[in-house]
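WARN retry 2 of 3 for item q-0093 after timeout on previous attempt; input resubmitted unchanged.
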Amino acid sequence: MSILLRGRVHGLKGPVNGVLVEGGLITWVGAGKPPTRPDEELAAGPGEVIAPGFIDLQVNGFQGHDAAGGRDEIAAMSELLPSTGVTAFLPTLISAPVATGAEFAASVAAAAESPGARVLGAHIEGPFINPSFRGAHERECLADPSPASVEVIASAHPHLVTLAPELPGALDAIVRLVRAGVVVSAGHTGADYEQGRRAIAAGVRFGTHIYNAMPPVHHRRPGIALALLLDSRVSVGLIADGEHIHPAVCAQLVRVKDTARIALTTDQTAAAGSPPGQYRLTGRAVVSDGTVVRLEDGTLAGSAATMDDIVRRMTAIPGMNATRAITMASAVPARVLGERGLGRIRVGGCADLVVLDGDLRVRLTMVGGKIRFRK
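OK item q-0093 returned
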């Protein structure tokens, strides 16, 4: 089935007012009459924009579902996430025994054909993280990256792994994971600036939830955060929910780091898209206030925000606008993952699209040319 979307197109100037979708791909972007007659034509309203679908690199759960529950839970998340404009995501597991992480990656792979947002692979966050910066991760699950344990994770083929590069054996682990095709991210780390630079030289190309669970930037001890921000090879994840990062720091970040290297991420949990209350995060009890979730002792444990929430919040940051915020939620995470067919509206690209109204609220979401959400 072919569908023609009419309206203003994100990131494109001039008279462009149409996107033609055929067979799951974008086959035409232009003005006037498309080369073939579509089976259906949909018009965006005044003030609305046709944008690339959002890609979330860190999804622990959604609407009562916990990714740690395996294939069925991940499949349920896949069906629900298009309501927030998300067309692709990485189900995420926080620190667990190495064997459990490998099993999780297999569960994610088994959910890859879910009929909703694309399941792009697993994000294994830990267990190779610094105990002093573990946040909500259980201490007894943490481990140093021994060659044997790293081999178990590498052989499971996750798409992204978050680790602390200062741990014994971590630099070798980075090299091995990169060789296996894994995107390696620094996070939950106490590394200093020089350790951060060595990690980047070894192959780290992402920073998980920048500023969170890492040393603060000090003018004499800048820490790994500044190493990640100042290196143009590295992208960073930003949880712009108003709690994980103060809006003023978000404004500073977009001045220091090229926005083409900042990926909006939710770090959302089962509480996202749901009322405040009690939920589970990889089996642990957490409490949501409607914006963030915390352990019972008050430790920050993730977000209840959705990607469209974060795009709207980021648009309001001084120096930002809707175009830049949408790009940070689509093209940037696609680039981080090496997903060339996603994140942009161009001929030959995947027809993963979202129609946003004038308030940047999701009106329609399309994945692979099929409408998965319509308001």
